[in-house]
Design a protein that fits this description.
Elements lengths: L7 E7 L9 E4 L1 H7 L6 E5 L3 E8 L9 E4 L1 H7 L6 E6 L2 E3 L2 E6 L8 H9 L3 E2 L4 E6 L2 E11 L4 E3 L5 E4 L23 H16 L1 H6 L3
Parallel strand pairs: 1-5, 2-4, 7-12, 8-13
Antiparallel strand pairs: 1-6, 2-5, 3-4, 3-6, 8-11, 9-12, 10-11
Length: about 210
């Protein structure tokens, strides 16, 4: 988003269950000083696309691994999958005075503005981010259309005025599954095997071409 800032490429690891849905990026503690960032700062995470998240320190076991832990929603907005390398750098974020979102399908929510305010409170967002919400057991995508004041990113708080457009927008969804690995609880070994089955041919198609698969 901005030039002249310290940039680091980190390996994407899945978020731990307690961090899912919080809009945070847990960064290798050894990298935090290199990037000149502090806990609570906002960083840009860029893969095939770009998004933002709030910095939290990585777990002790993450030190010197060169990793960033982000959940499926952030990976989707960054256009990244697990084990990808993404660019991470600090960005300037302001408190949002106003935020406009639009659904990707016809949608009306009674008390929608207040509901969204609760979901997005203390979350960092940027234009084009997809926010997934749950309505009566159904997952619905909302797209960040605009915000004030002008900034690279904004942080939503209780004072932010949130508007949900009734007019749907056409949005090319990221080519990532809406059901993420974090959605599957208590099956760590099984999930690892499924990941290998799905991601290996996607990341290394040449291996399967040689095998005639």
């Amino acid at each position: 988003m901005t030039s002249g800032k310290v940039e680091k490429f980190l390996k994407v690891i899945e978020a731990k269950p307690k961090d899912v849905g919080r809009g945070i990026a847990r960064i290798d503690p050894a990298v935090i000083d290199i990037l000149g960032i502090q806990v609570g700062d906002v960083v840009q995470i860029e893969g095939k696309k770009s998004t933002v998240a709030i910095v939290w320190p990585g777990y002790p076991e993450d030190t010197n691994r060169g990793i960033v832990r982000i959940d499926g929603s952030i990976r989707r907005n960054a256009g990244a999958t697990i084990d990808d390398k993404v660019s991470v750098q600090k960005v300037s974020a302001k408190r949002a005075s106003r935020l406009t979102l639009a659904p990707t399908e016809p949608l009306r929510i009674m008390g929608g503005d207040e509901y969204l305010s609760q979901i997005l409170e203390e979350r960092a967002v940027t234009k084009g981010d997809i926010i997934e919400i749950n309505i009566m057991g159904r997952k619905v995508d909302l797209v960040i259309l605009s915000f004030q004041p002008p900034a690279e990113a904004v942080i939503v708080d209780r004072e932010s005025e949130i508007k949900l457009s009734e007019k749907p927008v056409k949005e090319e969804l990221a080519k990532l599954p809406r059901v993420t690995y974090e959605d599957i609880g208590g099956l760590k070994d099984e999930v690892k095997k499924v990941r290998e089955m799905i991601e290996l041919p996607l990341k290394h198609p040449e291996l399967f071409e040689r095998l005639g698969v």
